[in-house]
Amino acid sequence: MDVVDISRWQFGITTVYHFILVPLTIGLAPLIAVMQTIWHRTGNEQWLRATKFFGKIFLINFALGVATGIVQEFQFGMNWSEYSRYVADVFGAPLALEGLMAFFLESTFIGLWIFGWGRLPRRIHLASIWMVAIGVNLSAYFIIAANSWMQHPVGAEWDTERGRPRMNNIVAVLTNNTTLVAFPHVIMGALLTASTVVAVIGLWWMARNTFRANKLEEAAKLGDDSIVPHTDSPSQIGASPADLRRDNATLWRPVSLLALWVVIGSGLGLFITGDMQAQLMFKQQPMKMAAAESLCETETGAPFSVLSIGRQNNCDGIEHVIAIPNMLSFLADHRFDTEVKGVNELQKQYQEALNMPGQNFAPNLFVTYWSFRAMITWALGSVVVAIGGLWFLRRKRTDVPTWFGKLALWMLPTPFLANASGWIFTEMGRQPWVVVPNWADPDGNPLQIHMLVQDGVSNHTSPAVWTTLIGFTLLYGALGVVWFYLERRYVIQGPGDKDGVAPDPGSDDDDANELSFAY
Questions:
Q1: Is residue 21 part of a domain?
Q2: Residue 352's domain spans which residues?
Q3: Phi-psi map region of 280: left, alpha, beta (phi>0 left; psi -120 to 50 alpha)
Q4: What single-letter DSSP state applies at residue 453?
Q5: DSSP state for residue 119 in the 8-state scheme
Q6: Cα separation of 128 and 120, whole Å?
Q7: Is residue 27 within 8 Å of residue 193, measured between CB atoms?
Q8: What is the dihedral of CA 467, 471, 472, 476, to 10 degrees?
Q9: How many independent structural domains does the chain possess?
Q10: In a domain, 122, yes or no
Q11: Terminal-residue alpha carbon distance, the chain
């Protein structure tokens, strides 16, 4: 591979690693804020237990997200210096706003939230977690605004003196229609991820408590304590069957129901915002839409391909086996007879418009086709959790069978994989562009602001980029092991003994007045 390919692999690998953590942080912050708000309004100590328990899960994820995210900023200067130089006057503004406003907001208030239990007035402390939730979502907005400019450049003009774009309207950059559609879709995906995690943990704990309660009752009847399984959770040690079922009814069932309904709501939100994105993509990036369907020739009333076989990255070798008639045209603009341009026609059109007869403007058809379908398929894992969870918790039921608790655990990675697949499709689908031409802009020369990927890399040698690629991959892999170990450890331990104790302003007990960890 040449330096361009290696640089793309490095940025792609580190970005996917980082984005495993991002949706959980974005979605879990408002969920924890809601839990603490319910405790604040009702005084129910079970919601305090839930707040502190999921707060620990959130903080581990937030810390690892910061550690992996810092590298992303540096990569623009390290491996993509030509790109950074080209887009500096535009791209730097939303990134600066993200750092100066959003990140400082969330990092400041997360410190107040961690150490402010019992020290801040309860309303101020509650406001702190809401400010964290606002901060992480604001951070997402600025990042998406920067990315959306790469997908659809607006609010900029060509600077002939320096030979690069110059921002002339920051409001247009921040209110780009691509941003306004992409942002809610990303937030819905984050809420789906976080609510699935909360629901799965709740259902798994209910199944665990149900299994242990049944074993305790069976042991009591037989007089044989050896059949009761060992537990590492402080909340299960010494607990009676009644205590375990009470925990299910008062803690895990309400928390799980809250999360399950958020799964349903965010799933519907994803469907709506995804439809909006498809219509915008049809107008702004028709090549990406054609590649997503491996649609090589222009068709009126184009079908939606469910399955295709053959040499996926070669239009001559693709055969569509299963297709839904006219559905792709409907997704494009809600009309069944719309003409959807194919890869081959768009290829000729772009070569003529840009006077680049030898340039291939089609992205990797295999990656775009299957990443789009992987995104939808993986999201169905959350649907399985939602349907099964609501079924087993209907009519105030609290017993969850062990098999469903295990099934829910197997579904836990699916929303993370769905989010990663969606971003792979979004970014790979705009190749070979790193800044896509604004084909639809009627003002001035719409094709002047654009950049091919090979024009954006730094002038490094391949061995140098290989070294950093291997180094970052190993480092991120190690951080991933730490993340998994810590999250697994605290989930298995469950809520601590002091998690349900209301903070005492006059107490020096750090367990009650801080969200602390023990290693």
A1: no
A2: 182-429
A3: alpha
A4: G
A5: T
A6: 10
A7: yes
A8: 160
A9: 1
A10: no
A11: 43
pLDDT of 518:
43
The reply to whether the predicted model has a pTM over 0.85 is yes
Pairing status of strand 318-324 against strand 304-310? antiparallel
Rg (C-alpha) for the chain, rounded Å, is: 26
Cβ proximity of 410 and 339 under 8 Å: no
Q: At what angle do helices 177-222 and 253-284 cross, to 10 degrees?
A: 150
CA 133/CA 26 separation, integer angstroms: 7
Question: 14 — alpha (psi -120 to 50), left (phi > 0) or beta?
Answer: alpha
Report d(CA 357, CA 123) in Å as an integer.
64
The span from the CA of 512 to the CA of 138, in Å, is 30
Greatest CA separation for the chain: 89
Sign of the CA dihedral 169, 171, 173, 177?
negative
Q: How many residues does the chain have?
A: 519
At 445, give phi and psi (nearest 5°): -100, 100
* Residue 164 resides in a domain: no
Question: Within a domain: residue 362?
Answer: yes
Report yes or no: 366 and 293 within 8 Å, Cβ to Cβ: no
- CA 23/CA 187 separation, integer angstroms: 8
For residue 137 the two structure tokens come to: 């979502």
Q: Hey, how many other C-beta atoms are within 10 angstroms of the C-beta on 99? A: 13
E strand or H helix at 322 = strand 318-324
Predicted confidence at residue 25, as pLDDT, reads 93
In sequence order, what DSSP letters do the residues of 366-424 get, joined into one string? HHHHHHHHHHHHHHHHHHHHHHHHHHHTGGG-----HHHHHHHHHHTTHHHHHHHHHHH
Q: How far is CA 212 from the centre of its chain?
A: 34
Chunked mean pLDDT (size 10), the chain, 519 residues: 87 87 94 96 93 94 86 81 90 87 88 90 94 94 92 88 89 93 95 96 94 88 82 81 91 96 96 92 89 87 80 69 85 88 89 85 88 93 95 92 94 94 91 82 60 89 89 88 92 77 59 51
pLDDT of residue 158: 85
For residue 416, give every residue at least 6 positions away whose Cβ sits within 8 Å of its Cβ, in sequence order, or none.
Answer: 20, 23, 24, 193
